[in-house]
Design a protein that fits this description.
Structural class: alpha/beta
Number of helices: 18
Protein name: Exostosin-2
Membrane topology: Single-pass type II membrane protein
Oligomer: single chain
Strand content: 5-15%
GO cellular component, one term: Golgi apparatus
Helix content: 25-40%
CATH topology of the largest domain: Spore Coat Polysaccharide Biosynthesis Protein SpsA, Chain A
CATH architecture of the largest domain: Alpha-Beta Complex
CATH superfamily of the largest domain: Spore Coat Polysaccharide Biosynthesis Protein SpsA, Chain A
Number of domains: 3
Strand order of the largest sheet: 17-16-15-18-23-19-24-25
Largest sheet: 8 strands, mixed
CATH class of the largest domain: Alpha Beta
Radius of gyration: 35 Å
Subcellular location: Endoplasmic reticulum membrane; Golgi apparatus, cis-Golgi network membrane
Shape: globular
InterPro entries: Exostosin (IPR004263), Exostosin_GT47 (IPR040911), GT64_dom (IPR015338), Nucleotide-diphossugar_trans (IPR029044)
């Protein structure tokens, strides 16, 4: 009892003494920690204003609220501009660095008002609504950053869209004063109306050092290929008018000219064409009996009759776009919006976004000296092709022309593709409207986008009775490391194949299939003996290809398993005089077909050729004993929307031992019939699916001066 009482009496006495002694200390410590946590949270989650960008909307921030910057008379002036600039010489790609999204970062300089020493602004208009829209679009995009240290590209808030409103010297001085100017390195300027009277230069006259220029009136003399970006001249007039899309097809007028300020010689020639062709051509001009203003800008007249503009453009199949004082014309945008095919006559003009857009699909470009022949040239274009061009013209406007936002972001995407080429948009992504894309375009065979782990390829050799040549082909193909099986399609019903003992001894299985009828289409039959994904179709007289060439072709196919990958390249051309397609086998810079006399493809296409070929194409091929290779090119291009790939430089594929009697390709009527095939197939398919490309695939060290033992494919062969 005493012990317990003694313990109890000490406990209550000690606890009050401890609280009294440390109370202030604990309260103070707790308060400091709590305040620290609150401050940290506010710092992390409260909106920051440090390094933030200004709002790029005129409604929220007036130009008059921007800080005033005076330009001393002695301020430095940039160099006029280096015409030799290219991305690898005047652009610092290392500033862009690596990022997982493969997207450049763009910084917009804060808005400032630049004036000279007496207070006169460098621009008579300040910040235009169009440039404000452009900057707003960039600041709202994924390209934008407000961290200047992360920026790859810098866009000044100085509006140089319209050179007419600028003081050239003072604008150049303002550019040079930008904090990160560094002789214009990695800076982008937007200009749509370059030059001024009397010469109207085709590029911005403001000295700009090494800055990139997105210009709306480039000529071949001022455009720096792969560095500058040719952009359209924005048309605010057509943007304010809602033109519903009109279905492609014949229109009331065949040709329409709506420009009001064209050269007298051009108008005289157009009037002569009008006299010759009557109602097919409508020649409009400015309305002289209307008061000036927006109302008159939206009207065009012909002999006192008034037409609404740009609505009248939808009533014509073709619309003339002639050069004016400047090469770039806003009329082009109006015409595209109307779904009218532009007929562009402006020699040396660099068409907008021509780096990525295929203008042959949406326009007709005619030299100015050919203006008298315009009607005849346009009449030679098939109706179906005109409809496709009308559809493509409208889509170009919707995707790339319709707003300053579309123009600005397209420009940045083009620059982005240059800096990150491995993540760049494809030709199809730039040029194929979504409404006409096949669901299987990107991957028609449901194949992986990485090289498949395939057990090699099956070589299919079509033969009739050229036994000696056939045996040589078999011997050469057997040397290819990736050959898995060799299948001979014996197409001669009147003669048996050689005895088994006479065939070349090779390390892979050799099978011979006898056909019931002598048809060229037999080479594409889906034989059960074909077990690999890759098929090499090869003629029995192609004895000149080396094992290195064949192995390299197979490696390329593994990277592009939905393409035809082959060696003999050919081209289809439109013959304006004859008004039809023509087959071309001469050496050119372009390829639209690879012949299946030596080509790799996926075996899936054998099933499509045999069971899904449109119309009577298969019967046509078998009846004419020709063009099975062209038919396969049509089929693959139509399914995938992609061009073939030519590999290695070799162009000659003639059998040295074959005579004119033996060689089908040596028949005098061969070329004429091949052209007939192209026109026949285009008619059956209802379109021209073949795609033209200007490149081929070669091994990396093919032409390098290295020891042969360092090259993976040393024996590529000559032309």
């Amino acid at each position: 009892m005493c012990a317990s009482v003694k313990y109890s009496s000490r406990g209550p006495a000690l606890i009050p003494r401890m609280k009294t002694k440390h109370r202030i200390y604990y309260i103070t410590l707790f308060s400091v920690v709590l305040l620290g946590l609150i401050a940290t949270g506010m710092f992390q989650f409260w909106p920051h204003s440090i390094e933030s960008s200004p709002e790029w909307t005129l409604d929220r921030r007036s130009v008059h609220d921007a800080p005033l910057v005076k330009l001393p008379v002695s301020s430095p002036i940039p160099e006029r501009g280096d015409l030799s600039c290219r991305m690898h010489t005047c652009f610092d790609v290392y500033r862009c660095g690596y990022n997982p999204k493969n997207r450049i970062k763009v910084y917009i300089y804060p808005l400032q008002r630049f004036v000279d020493e007496v207070g006169v602004p460098i621009s008579s208009t300040g910040l235009s609504r169009e440039y404000n829209d452009l900057l707003s679009a960039i600041s709202d995009s994924d390209f934008y950053t407000d961290d200047v240290t992360r920026a790859c590209l810098f866009v000044p808030s100085i509006d140089v869209l319209n050179q007419n409103s600028l003081r050239i010297r003072e604008t150049a001085q303002a550019l040079a004063m930008l904090p990160r100017w560094d002789k214009g390195m990695n800076h982008l300027l937007f200009n749509m109306l370059p030059g001024g009277p009397p010469d109207y230069n085709t590029a911005l006259d403001v000295p700009r050092d090494r800055a990139l220029l997105a210009g709306g009136g480039f000529s071949t003399w001022t455009y720096r290929q792969g560095y500058d970006v040719s952009i359209p001249v924005y048309s605010p007039l057509s943007a304010e008018v809602d033109l519903p899309e009109k279905q492609p097809g014949p229109r009331r007028y065949f040709i329409l000219s709506s420009q009001t300020a064209i050269h007298r010689e051009y108008r005289t020639e157009l009037e002569r064409l009008k006299e010759e062709n009557g109602e097919a051509l409508l020649l409009l001009d400015k309305c002289s009996n209307l008061s000036q203003g927006m109302a008159s800008a939206r009207k065009r007249c012909y002999k006192g009759q008034v037409y609404d503009y740009p609505q009248i453009l939808q009533e014509s199949s073709f619309c003339v776009v002639l050069r004016g004082a400047r090469l770039g014309q806003a009329t082009l945008s109006d015409v595209l919006q109307a779904g009218c095919v532009p007929v562009i006559m402006a020699d040396s003009y660099i068409l907008p976004f021509s780096e990525v857009l295929d203008w042959k699909r949406a326009s007709v470009v005619i030299p100015e000296e050919k203006l008298p022949e315009m009607y005849t040239i346009l009449k030679s274009i098939p109706h179906r092709q005109v409809e496709e061009m009308q559809r493509q013209a409208r889509w170009f406007w919707e995707a790339y022309f319709r707003s300053m936002k579309a123009i600005g972001l397209t420009t940045l995407q083009i620059i982005n593709d240059r800096i990150y080429p491995y993540a760049a948009r494809t030709y199809e992504e730039w040029n194929n409207p979504p409404v006409v894309k096949w669901s299987s375009v990107s991957n028609p065979l449901f194949l992986p986008l990485i090289p498949p782990r395939s057990p090699g390829f099956t070589a299919v050799v079509l033969t009739y009775d050229r036994v000696e040549s056939l045996f040589r082909v078999i011997t050469e193909i057997s040397k290819v490391p990736s050959l898995a099986k060799l299948l001979v399609v014996w197409n001669n019903q009147n003669k048996s194949p050689p005895e088994e003992s006479l065939w070349p001894k090779i390390a892979v299985p050799l099978r011979v299939v006898r056909t019931k009828e002598n048809k060229l289409s037999n080479r594409f039959f889906p034989f059960d003996e074909i077990e690999t994904e890759a098929v090499l179709a090869i003629d029995d007289d192609i004895i000149m290809l080396t094992s290195d060439e064949l192995q390299f072709g197979y490696e390329v196919w593994r990277e592009f398993p939905d393409r035809l990958v082959g060696y003999p390249g050919r081209l289809h051309l439109w013959d304006h005089e004859m008004g039809k397609w023509k087959y071309e086998s001469e050496w050119t810079n372009e390829v639209s077909m690879v012949l299946t006399g030596a080509a790799f493809y996926h075996k899936y296409f054998n099933y499509l050729y045999t069971y899904k070929m449109p119309g009577d194409i298969k019967n046509w091929v078998d009846a004419h004993m020709n063009c099975e290779d062209i038919a396969m090119n049509f089929l693959v291009a139509n399914i995938t929307g992609k061009a073939p790939i030519k590999v290695t430089p070799r162009k000659k594929f003639k059998c040295p031992e074959c005579t004119a009697i033996d060689g089908l390709s040596l028949d005098q009527t061969h070329m004429v019939e091949r052209s007939e095939c192209i026109n026949k197939f285009a008619s059956v398919f209802g379109t021209m699916p073949l795609k033209v490309v200007e490149h081929r695939a070669d091994p990396v060290l093919y032409k390098d001066d290295f020891p042969e033992k360092l090259k993976s494919f040393p024996n590529i062969g000559s032309l």
